[in-house]
Amino acid sequence: MRNLMISVLLTTLGLAGGCQQQPPANDQLDAVLWTQTSIEHELIYRQVFASATRQLDVALADPSWDALPLPPRDLSGLPPAVVVDIDETLLDNIPLNARDIRNNQEYSYQRWNTWVQQGQAQALPGAAAFLQAAAQRGVQVYYLTNREHAQVADTVSNLRLRGFPVSDAQQVLAAATPTGHCEAAGYGKSCRRQWVAEHARVLLLVGDSFGDFVQAKANNLAAQRQAAAPYLGWLGQRWFVLPNPTYGNWYSAPYGDQDDLPMARKRELKQQALELQQ
């Protein structure tokens, strides 16, 4: 009996036979919990969008104001616009992540596509009011998203349902948008920002991912810091960055964006990326 109890205990602890516990299929628990249950998350969104709203009038009053990371250009005659990301900037998709955690499932593009089609995403705090304020001032809104081009109609429906101003589906520039030569550019947003630059004077950029602002040469912190360096003075003035602890380029960078690696190997590489001392 005593030996049986020891065996059960070792098995429970994952120690029997020298085996270690396997990581869960989805290890975003704490990130999703913070996103969904912390008042800090909600207040950060309200703070950022309130600050962005105040900057609209400042930017409108300065005809040389431009938020795009491009060389100086002739802005005369261009109408004002703002460029915003959608997912985890305007629309909250984290319930899908929460469902995967509850079911111990890895991320699934099929489930994501169903989610987009259903249009269930809610507006994040302060987001709709910000864009409504922009529209009331005659500022055009361009939604640059890495959703697929085939998902634009469903995305527009979801945005309108949550109170976002979308008068024309062409305001939504999805991945591989057939706009100029941007179809071949895939998920990078630089080409789509360049297209907007030809049609508008961009007052503000808002997003939750570094690629919503400028494209780094590589998916690592050193390259991103280098790309951000010329624009640090724009933070809180022309660029407004929101937190996303659940997914992004940072999440896949430690394992070289190799999504086909086993979860255990991904987790091992992420642990190796942690800094224990500066």
Task: Describe the 3D structure.
The protein is of the alpha/beta class and 278 residues long. It has a single domain (29-273), classed as Rossmann fold, CATH 3.40.50. It is built from eleven helices and seven strands. It has helices at residues 2-12, 29-37, 39-61, 94-102, 109-118, 127-136, 152-161, 190-197, 221-228, 249-252, 263-273, and strands at 80-84, 91-92, 122-123, 140-148, 172-175, 201-207, 239-241. The termini are far apart. 26% of the residues are buried. Mean pLDDT is 91; it is low at 1-18.
Q: Which series of helices and strands comes N to C?
A: HHHEEHHEHEHEHEHEHH
What would CATH call the class? Alpha Beta
Runs with pLDDT <50, length 5+? 1-18
Number of helices: 11
Instruction: Report on the biggest sheet.
Output: 5 strands, parallel
Question: What is the element layout, followed by pairings?
Answer:
Elements: H1 2-12, H2 29-37, H3 39-61, E1 80-84, E2 91-92, H4 94-102, H5 109-118, E3 122-123, H6 127-136, E4 140-148, H7 152-161, E5 172-175, H8 190-197, E6 201-207, H9 221-228, E7 239-241, H10 249-252, H11 263-273
Helix pairs in contact: 2-3, 2-4, 3-6
